Amino acid sequence: MEINKLDSTVSASPQIVPADIAQIRAAGFRSIICNRPDGEGSDQPGFAEIEQAARDAGIVARYVPVTAGQISDADVAEFNAALADLPRPVLAYCRSGTRSATLWSFHAAGTRPMTDILAATKAAGYDMNGVARRIANGGRTPTDTGDASYDVVIVGAGAGGISVAASLKSRKPDLQIAVIDPADVHYYQPGWTMVGAGVFDAQQTAKTMGSLIPRGVTWIKSAVAAFEPDRNAVILEGCRVVKYDRLVVCPGLKLDWDQVAGLKDTLGRNGVTSNYRYDLAPYTWQLVQKLKQGRAIFTQPPMPIKCAGAPQKAMYLSGDAWFRNGALGNIDIQFMNAGGVLFGVKDYVPALMKYVDKYDATLNFFHNLIAIDGPGKTATFRVAKPDTDATEVTVDFDMIHVCPPQVAPDFIRVSPLADAAGWVDVDQATLRHKHHDNIWALGDVMNAPNAKTAAAARKQAPTVAENIVADLDGRSAVAQYDGYGSCPLTVERGKIVLAEFGYGGVLKPSFPSVLLDGTKPTRAAWFLKERMLPPIYWQAMLRGKEWMAKPEPLKAAAK
């Protein structure tokens, strides 16, 4: 692990894991401060896991979470109080260490010259010049000038961000593009369902971010704090400022584990798992293999969520494993869905119901998970059926697969780019912002009424790229997105119901029905999911090769 010394008693580091605690103790640290909110990343252990490992090693751990790039006076005060209270030396950590170094810089500003603070943080590997400007500007980051400027700035290097960067570069190679993302690793998240079923290894779904950023595109490894669209500025953590001519916003969404009481404290143990986290998907398969009798619960929260079929995919593949090993007759499968239907596009429901019957799964609609007692092996649901008073029911479990509630990232929800519900407000055809003409959005974070899937981003990226190029050339939008999304519903090992649809649930099959009928379970669809889609993702979509994803001409422009 990486430990960066700020002064004689305080150091900063990137995200730590429980296995690092022995090294931290050996280095002499007596306390740990966590400055990273739980649920910020899909590969992030919760603070409860860190705290338990620290306690076992005789180290005090304190939770002082700070939203990336949004450090307030209250955050600084809480950090100062923690430093005053905890035994030293102290190791503070966040995603990269930048938030912790920023908090320390504000802490030290009252007693040390700014030149000393800048020298110390620079030696530790952190650029705090933006913090110095904020302090000198009375606590506000000035955005009249920037630390860097680009033709196009892309916020987020997930499926949408890297794809749109590659598509733009393929159209205009000389375009100056920057991608902003703090993550070191890029994940093929659609593969985690297969990890949870023992089909893929987790490592198959991860590649270093640096290996995927398109050639000629600048990677700014930082988190975004805020947007100032009237000044064409993005403010980063550490109070640095990046200016743009055009902006693309696609940071994905946030897994809000905090909405379920007790969930964070029991994830990864006590039979509580989730394929929505990289490090937990293998635990799903461990639980499935181990369970020979008892109750298995699979939950789905209120929409929107990414890959709306993923909660039931976990149920089907687990049921198939129990069917194959002979345990199914001794396992009570319960699907707890906060919504009122099994799947939002009715054409696919008959095929899915055959598997619900095959695995003898009980469907419980309008059941929303609100609390988990891991050691007690109980889950509590709020039951809110139409035209009835809401009630609560507590159910025992031996295994529970949780799909967490999901929201837009904090820095999006509080920004001037968001609608009343917190999502980036775009025209659903052109994906251009409704109020800022030089801003576009794609992926899970925007408010178009489509399924939030990687397949949707595959279609959206060329649309955004085509429309940005048209705008650069002084033309109106020329491409439109039709709401396409795909959900390969893994109903058993070897067969998939390939749901493909657009806005309004209109079916959008990619293949003639004689080759692949998406409304029925087929081996061809499984082959596509297992063998074809991963290389298409890594080697085509993220490289700007728009196979079966050419942008559709905007109807108004085509006349």
From TrEMBL:
<dbReference type="InterPro" id="IPR005939">
    <property type="entry name" value="BLH_phosphatase-like"/>
</dbReference>
<dbReference type="InterPro" id="IPR036188">
    <property type="entry name" value="FAD/NAD-bd_sf"/>
</dbReference>
<dbReference type="InterPro" id="IPR023753">
    <property type="entry name" value="FAD/NAD-binding_dom"/>
</dbReference>
<dbReference type="InterPro" id="IPR015904">
    <property type="entry name" value="Sulphide_quinone_reductase"/>
</dbReference>
<protein>
    <submittedName>
        <fullName>TIGR01244 family phosphatase</fullName>
    </submittedName>
</protein>
<feature type="domain" description="FAD/NAD(P)-binding">
    <location>
        <begin position="150"/>
        <end position="254"/>
    </location>
</feature>
<dbReference type="Pfam" id="PF04273">
    <property type="entry name" value="BLH_phosphatase"/>
</dbReference>
<dbReference type="Pfam" id="PF07992">
    <property type="entry name" value="Pyr_redox_2"/>
</dbReference>
<feature type="domain" description="Beta-lactamase hydrolase-like protein phosphatase-like">
    <location>
        <begin position="7"/>
        <end position="110"/>
    </location>
</feature>
<dbReference type="InterPro" id="IPR029021">
    <property type="entry name" value="Prot-tyrosine_phosphatase-like"/>
</dbReference>
